[in-house]
Amino acid sequence: MEGDLRIDAAGAWKRKVGFSFDGEALTASEGETLAAALHAQGRRTLRIHRDDGGPRGAFCFMGVCQECVVLIDGRQTEACRTLVREGLVVERLR
Fold first, then answer.
1. CB 4 within 8 A of CB 40
2. Residue 32: CA atoms inside 13 Å, Cβ hemisphere, count?
3. pTM
4. Could you report the per-residue pLDDT of 1-37, keeping only the tens digit for each?
5. Buried b / exposed e across 23-33, counting CB within 10 Å, b at 16+?
6. 45: Cα separation from own chain's centroid
7. How many CB atoms lie within 10 A of CB 21?
8. Percent of the chain with pLDDT over 70
9. CA atoms of 87 and 30, how far apart (whole Å)
10. Among candidate residues 83, 93, 87, the one with its CA nearest the CA of residue 63
């Protein structure tokens, strides 16, 4: 699925902030979770499984499954529990 899946009217009043995911510049509404922002923009693979090399991404969106872990400032962090903020640098976990 391509493109931004967000309903613009729902978040139009919120300030947009810029962040990067694997070097790609993206924008999201301030206060949106990183997992929701990436999912809405079609970024489904957030990490690569260490054993089978398969793609992993957000599943539960509430911090239970650990499938959305990404690297932020060199630390492994759940994307579903991280709010997007200006200048956030996110990398896919490999």
1. yes
2. 26
3. 0.81
4. 455 555 554 555 678 999 999 999 999 998 899 999 9
5. eeebebbeebb
6. 9
7. 20
8. 86
9. 12
10. 83
